Structure prediction request, 669 residues.
Amino acid sequence: MNEGNIPQSVAKDGGIVAELRSSPWKLGIVAVLIAFPFVVTSAFIDAGFWLLFAIEVFVFGIAVLSYDLMFGYTGLLTFGHALFFGGGAYGIAIMAHVYDLTYLEAFPVVLVLLFVLGLVVGVAALQLSGVYFAIITLAFAQLAHELILQFNGITGGVNGIYSITIPDVAGFSLTEPIVTYYVTLAACFAVYLALRRVTASPFGRVIQGIRENEERIEMLGINTFRYKLSSFVLAGVIGGFAGMLYPLFITFVSPPLANWTTTGDLLMMTLIGGFGTLWGPLLGTGFYVLLETVLSGVIEQWRLLMGVIFVLFVLFLPSGIAGLLQGELSTAAAQLRTMIPGGSDDASLDMERNLNPEEEEHE
Amino acid sequence: MVLTMVADLTTASHVTMFVDPTAVLNGLSRALLLFLIASGLSLIFGLMGVVNFAHGAFYALGGYLGVFVFGFSESFLVALFIAPFLVALVGILTESTTIRPLYDRDPIYQVLLTFGVSIILDELIKLVWGSSPLSLGAPEALGGVSELGFISYPTYRVFIIGFGLLMALGLWLFIQRTRVGIIIRAGTLDSEMVEAMGINVQRVFTGMFGLGVGLAAVGGVVASPLLGVYPTMGTEILIEAFLVVVLGGLGSVRGALLGALIIGMAQGIGAYYISSFVGLLLFVIMIAVLLIRPYGLLGHSGIAEH
Prediction:
């Protein structure tokens, strides 16, 4: 995004270092994430398992961040994001397999292709809105899925592409779990920071305005189509970027990556985490992958629980875990304030008082 | 899955200069199967404005319950009545507990919710019946091959064509000629006005959802002797059903029939000439229709405002 567009309030805040210095718990999270590989290697027998878990969270986290830009910030429910995620993963695999490019050589090529793909699909799909947009994006993604299945000479068909070789970079083996861990952590963190800037910029304000009331934004003389398209292309490229990191920890790609169930996973992670917050969907990704990791060993149908949780969130807590945390924290703080001066020993009395505002005034 | 079956059937027959009659009949039976599923999807959208992403899962549930009931009763006819009835009950329960609270929210939430419901149903099916496919042989009376004069053709597929046409006629009569049908048609145009006339629209919505997913379940039972039942059958059919209703026009039953005929024929005849590439062609058609005429061939433009 254009640096010049970032408003003073964001540009002046002194950047990430100052933010970490002023907020100890944010610094704590960063420290924990950096120390994580050392902690698991010394504390767990199966360190590789937990490293892989974290890497999966980071890679899907990037895709989920881009999904949140689309759904949470721009208000566009897409059922076709797997097109980009799968496209990135397949792009890398095909470049390596068919055109003999190394991983790093393929990277910029695939990024450009993803940009073009986003532009073409975006221009077409954004002719429609609401549920029609959801259906046409689904159609595009399933078309790509079908193409992958049909052109098995290039894509490997149902079997996918196996043994994608990832060469060493500057003496580091990118497939070494600990290296992959830091590479994906850095990538996820960078995307998070970048999207935080984007969403706080005037561009971000406009897309959030489109989410709230597109007609109104149009009335301001703004070409909303261009903003939606920019958001779509940016989300597509970032979603594809996540897909390009995928072969780093799973060295094969297969059609389910580009199927709409992948989009469904991203959607669930985003909504359960709390759309429109960026950090919420990241938490949602962690929650989802953790539940999958823990449950898939116990019961084959772990998605059943995921579906139930998702439905409950849609019905009762559409603001997700982020909304829960924010809401709970503020009500807990408010409750603490009302309860401390009372000092009553009788808990039931306390509860009654909270329910009855008039009595509270006597305090 | 479906396409390969169709292809197998067609490659066996003799190639002529004209379109092969087997391909046409395959297309027709496919079309009427698709109509059963798509008509429910279209009616639910037309009346309630809900794009039911769980429709495929209800179709799958119908197929599995059909196999289950058949196992008990040994009667295909009993399965064909009981399974859709049970699915309709599940649908009514789903609508009244989960979809109803969402009517005053953004329609996107209904999409999210029905997507969640589809995951729950799909996983429940796997939990109860396992992940491997089950099959139900064609009922004895409908087994074998029929001589149609110009061609011999599997009796069960003939049954699908006849049964599908009968269902289409019944649905048409129900909507055009009954009091409930009038309410449904009026509700599709302006549900607030219908409510103002003293009709409990909420109950009509619930009933419609039950009827819609019940129709999908009828499709599931009818399809099971032909294709078997397997966990991904729901998601596969959902995409095709979307294709049909988008082509015909969301909310229109006549549109669903026209869309189903076009898609079914394209599959039947396409499988004969361009084999499995027909799947690609269908998505291209779908995207083109959405871009040129998003309200479909028979839908009216107002409905696209949903």
Observations:
- Chain B touches chain A through 39 residues (CB under 8 Å).
- The first helix of chain B runs from residue 2 to 12.
